Amino acid sequence: MSRTDTIVAAATPPGRGGIGIVRVSGPRVPEIAAVLLGELPLPRRAGFARFLDAAQEPIDAGLALFFPGPHSYTGEHVLELHGHGGPLVLEALVARVAELGARRALPGEFTQRAFLNNKLDLAQAEAIADLIDAGSREAARAAMRSLQGEFSAIVRGLTEAVIDLRTYVEAAIDFPEEEIDFLADRELEERFQAVHDHFKAVEQSARQGRLLREGMTIVIAGRPNAGKSSLLNRLAGYDAAIVTPIPGTTRDIVRERIDIDGMPLHILDTAGLREDADVVEAEGIRRAHAEMRRADRVLFVIDAADDPDAAAYREEKGRLPVDIPVTLVLNKCDLATGIPVADTMTGPPRLALSALTGEGLDTLRAHLKTCVGYQTLEAGTVSARQRHLDALDRARRQVAEAERRLRDSRAGELVAEELRGAQQALNEITGDFTSEDLLGRIFGSFCIGK
Ligand SMILES: Nc1nc2c(ncn2[C@@H]2O[C@H](COP(=O)(O)OP(=O)(O)O)[C@@H](O)[C@H]2O)c(=O)[nH]1
Ligand SMILES: [Mg+2]
């Protein structure tokens, strides 16, 4: 797809609305406008115009706006046609513009051009999609911060620190007689430490951002009849899963998306964990385990009336994924009295509630927020994606590798090489270094017209 094509698409969503907007971008905008409108509108002035077909009949009439490049969204000449928001009218208008020499835009192509013309970096371009797709006010605010370049600035700060470190090492390589001393310097050690700390801070911020965008996944697990499905229903606020007194009711995974004060959560209810299950239930249990491995947290539900010491948890513990945090939920507190919630120093956090009466549910919600540090989200949270976290992780591992090589062999060249790799991984986040392939994947997930 050539970058010099002129592209066209409806910018407003399909459907009916008071206004529908068609956007055109590229070098042929002036000539297309001249034929379509009879004249090129004044730059950045909204003017009334008729949008004419080949027979000079109006297809529609409305506002025409011309943004001469480079001062436009894409950095190219852009024409916006604000007509009426009917699918047929908009399609006729797009077809007419195409007839006059434009090509229909690919998904995300307007924003991709904005990126290629340095109107925004890659993290900002992604933030546009995140802003449009935001599922909560908090997510929208974080996306807006990323769009304004806050996240990019944080990443660039980290990149600078890595570059400084590399420059320092490379300077050592340039003076071979002193190289060994130089690389053994304590100063270098301290610089590495500072970069590590910097990574930690950026990762923290990106993880929060990803959480806000993509949500945290919570798996509800426990013995049959502990009240897992009842808890899911409570959190969802309606009867999503079937609840009966018969053990083994839930077999398939039941998924619900909820939000707690704007923090999105994916909650999964699973088959009860037990030994003597039939084939269907055993498959349900296998899936429960698979979901737990992918979870951000497991809520292990105990029937506290029946098992006040949470023996079920101790029995299952060995089969639970080691690196996924657990919260013990002592359910049915309406039946049991004196449940020992007062936290034992060891073991997972525990809290008592009743999925039946709703008692203790607020504590659980607050607990889930605290677990992910959601309370601190307000100040300066940016939106981020898994892609960013992966790149940060790769960069951090390369810095660690650089440090190892420094310690083990004092091989300056190799240290510098690893640091160069780390720098490149960081550049992928903002798009200062990208492959065609990566761009295709990112912009391909946008909708047409963005
Ligand atoms: N008294 C009481 N009964 C509950 C509570 N939670 C669930 N139950 C009952 O326990 C039984 C099993 O509940 P269910 O949610 O299907 O458990 P699951 O097998 O773990 O999904 C049902 O009869 C529920 O009504 C609770 O907090 N208090
Ligand atoms: Mg169930």
- In total, how many beta strands? 12
Flag low-confidence runs: none
Give the helices and strands as they follow along the chain. Answer: EEHEEEHEHHHHHHEHEEHEHEEHHHH
Strand order of the largest sheet: 3-4-5-2-1-6
Bound compounds, each kind once, are: guanosine-5'-diphosphate, magnesium ion
Task: Supply Rg.
Answer: 28 Å
Please give the share of residues in helix. Answer: 40-55%
Class computed from helices, strands and strand pairing: alpha/beta
Tally of distinct domains: 2
CATH class bucket of the largest domain: Alpha Beta
Biggest pleated sheet: 6 strands, mixed
The CATH topology of the largest domain is Rossmann fold
Backbone shape: flat
SS strand fraction = 15-25%
Q: What does the average pLDDT come to?
A: 90
Put simply, the count of helices is: 15
Distance between the termini: 17 Å
CATH architecture of the largest domain: 3-Layer(aba) Sandwich
3D architecture notes:
With 450 residues, this protein is α/β, with parallel strands linked by helices. It folds into two domains: 113 residues, Gyrase A, domain 2; 283 residues, P-loop containing nucleotide triphosphate hydrolases (Rossmann fold, 3-Layer(aba) Sandwich), CATH 3.40.50. It contains 15 helices and twelve strands. It is flat, with a radius of gyration of 28 Å. It binds guanosine-5'-diphosphate and magnesium ion. The site of magnesium ion (MG) has 5 residues, from helix 9.
Describe the secondary-structure layout.
Elements (H helix, E strand, L loop, with lengths): L6 E4 L6 E9 L3 H9 L9 E6 L5 E10 L10 E8 L1 H13 L3 E2 L4 H8 L5 H12 L3 H11 L2 H24 L2 H9 L1 H29 L1 E7 L5 H9 L17 E7 L2 E7 L9 H16 L2 E7 L7 H6 L9 E6 L18 E3 L8 H11 L14 H24 L2 H19 L5 H9 L6
Helix pairs in contact: 4-5, 6-8, 6-14, 8-13, 13-14
Bound molecules: guanosine-5'-diphosphate and magnesium ion (MG).
The site of magnesium ion has 5 residues, from helix 9.
